[in-house]
Amino acid sequence: MSAVTTVQSNYLSTYAKLQSWVGEVAALTRPAEIHWCEGTPEEWVRITDTLVENGTFTRLNDEKKPNSFYCASDPTDVARVEDRTFICSVDEKDAGPTNNWMAPDDMKELMRGLYDGCMQGRTMYVIPFVMGHLESDHPMFGVEITDSAYVVASMTVMARIGKDVLDKIESTEADYVPALHSFGAPLADGQADVPWPCNDTKYIVQFPEERTIWSYGSSYGGNALLGKKCYALRIASVMGRDEGWMAEHMLILKLTNPEGVVKYIAAGFPSACGKTNLAMVEPTIPGWKVETIGDDIAWIRVGADGRLYAVNPEFGLFGVAPGTGWDTNSNAMRTIAQGNSVFTNVALTDDGDVWWEGMTDEPPAHLTDWKGNDWTPDSDQLSSHANSRFCTPIKQCPTLAPEYDDPNGVPLDAILFGGRRKTTIPLVTEARDWTHGTFMGATLSSETTAAATGAVGVVRRDPMAMLPFIGYDAGDYFGHWINMAKNNDESKFPKIFYVNWFRRDEDGGFLWPGFGENSRILKYVIDRVEGKVEAHETPIGLVPPTSSIDTDGLDVTDEQLAEALRVDADEWAAELPQINEWFEKFGDTLPAVLWTELDGLKARLGL
Ligand code: GTP
Ligand code: MN
Ligand code: MN
Question: The Phosphoenolpyruvate carboxykinase C-terminal P-loop domain covers which part of the protein (predicted)?
């Protein structure tokens, strides 16, 4: 409790554990002052005004985007840094072969060195937050400490934060995930600040046993908004393993057919592979309606009736900007049009609005690009970074389903996995059962995107779209998937499908138009759940004949659709050694039933 009293703070918590942690962090990082966030509209104004004064934010034209801000990051701090992300379990083995690991004590010593005095000359913000509903049976609390006002503004949009959350943490002396963030840029007396402070040294660290997060050096969303990937996926996946539930990188949507029958679907696609798009898709088939529940993260629990119920723990949308336009995702456009949003690394128009590639067919004649340079349609560079993002309140989404507010979530009828593959993976394949679906998820592959630093377009395994987010040994995580069905009534569980919107023809064009037309696949999925249409057994699972897919008014020939659905024996023969090599990484933590699935697949392919 000692050090905090030496720094000016707007609040002292009555909850000794919380107050002493805040005091310890202040003693280590030595901020000029401490500000506990209340999440009020007045605080938002103060924080965003501060960011405008510092040159971090540019206020957008109120008539175009009310109460909204443009922001450009340091050009080196634009995405998640997977090679700097660590799972520091006590035992190295528990991090598994897909995570970086360091012994917790070594990591803490190293990072204490980095945190030492790192907030000098700055305000240390304390953000009480809850992932999921404050009214749920067991609210999932966190407290983020950060020196970044950008993080405060973004967390205000992305999570439920503030005084009511703090009151409940204090009055119930609740457990919370302590999440420490610093961009690592202390300010000496009189030193001029920069618009986007950050540090070349970056660490994004999860301590799974302690359920603690330490992040340093970056203010990019996935690295710095610690309620999101770090807590709601990495730490929560560990909690789920221990407590019998699941934290997944999945959208959640509500689908209503023309007769008014409602179904719920969750879908796990890797970063920048179409979750936000599908979550608010406008169906092209008449009479069908899609409503949004979540676009990135699903927490899935077994309900009293034995079904799997999914909630979206987030409060905002942090969506990929490029490719979001009135033609592709009009509901996202309607959401941001209401304002109250932060746009990072997009381009600024001359009349104080934002623009990015794919927003409109015709780019404006002149822009300021994300690096602050003049940009015209003749420029040979993109105006916006490929991983530029909009951060906007989910409550503004015109298609938000009322069930979003239900702390118990929605019962899932189907789970989709999907990746970005030019070849091999058909438009849609249905798993024979939960174990086969787990195999599909465990072997999911996708071409890398700009959402993480590193090469783009390289095929890698991304199990359940969770490769960067599994907080423990991925082999054990597959085991957890298998156990969910073993320990419950599998007959009540959703059917699992594997989709691929990204298969290409010989000329490199997409075989499937995607976007709104994906509603035809959602319809097919539900038709299968209800046993209304047929699918053929193939070596890789159940694949529809073209006649099972509603193609009324679709601008795709039967041959093209057949090509999109084709199971190509040669392509699969090339795929199998890769799956084999992938499974061998895991040694004895890989559930034996997944080897059995692979053997069965080989045999059915005659290999
Ligand atoms: P994260 O938010 O990073 O987890 O990614 P996400 O899965 O939400 O990705 P998002 O929906 O933002 O999609 C990103 C990219 O996928 C954009 O470039 C879209 O244009 C493209 N995309 C989305 N759906 C489709 C589709 O059906 N077909 C094609 N060809 N591209 C699509
Ligand atoms: Mn994501
Ligand atoms: Mn998204």
Answer: 245-604
541: tokens are 């699972």
Q: What is the pLDDT of residues 299-354, one digit of tens each?
A: 999 999 999 999 999 999 999 999 999 999 999 999 999 999 999 999 999 999 99
Give residue 454's pLDDT band: very low, low, confident or very high (50, 70, 90): confident
Query: Measured from the CB, is residue 564 less than 6 Å from ligand 1?
Result: no
pTM, full prediction: 0.97
In the three-class reduction of DSSP (H, G, I as helix; E, B as strand; rest coil), residue 162 is classed as coil
| Gap between the Cα atoms of 569 and 540, Å rounded | 10
Of 26-35, 81-90, 446-455, 501-510, the poorest mean pLDDT is in 446-455
Q: What distance in Å separates the CA atoms of residue 459 and residue 478, rounded to the nearest whole number? A: 21
The token duo for 398 is: 């015109």
Q: Averaged over 206-227, what is the pLDDT? A: 98
Contacts of 262 (CB under 8 A, 6+ apart): 254, 255, 256
The percentage of residues in the chain with a pLDDT greater than 70, rounded to a whole number, is: 99
Chain center to CA of 478: 20
Q: Return the pLDDT at 1.
A: 41
* pLDDT per residue as tens digits for the range 398-436: 999 999 999 999 999 999 999 999 999 999 999 999 999
**Residue 292 CB–ligand 1 contact under 6 Å:** no
Can you spell out the DSSP letters for 100-146? Answer: B---HHHHHHHHHHHHTTTTTTSEEEEEEEEES-TTSSS-EEEEEEE
Question: What domains sit in the chain, N to C, each tagged with a CATH number?
Answer: 8-54+82-243 (3.40.449.10), 247-316+403-567 (3.90.228.20)
3-state helix, strand, coil in the chain (%, to 5): 30, 20, 45
Average pLDDT over residues 34-44: 97
Between the CA of 89 and the centroid of ligand 3 the distance, in Å, is: 28
At 332, list the tokens. Answer: 């996202």
Dihedral of CA 176/181/186/192: which sign?
negative
Q: Tokens 């019962």: give the residue.
A: 411
- Residue with CA at minimum distance from ligand 1 atom 12: 320
List the residue whose alpha carbon is closest to atom 22 of ligand 1: 274
Is 271 near ligand 1, meaning CB less than 6 Å away?
A: yes
Strand partners, 389: 320, 344
Token pair listed for 573: 């023969």
What does the alpha-carbon distance between residue 414 and residue 433 come to, in Å, rounded to a whole number?
12
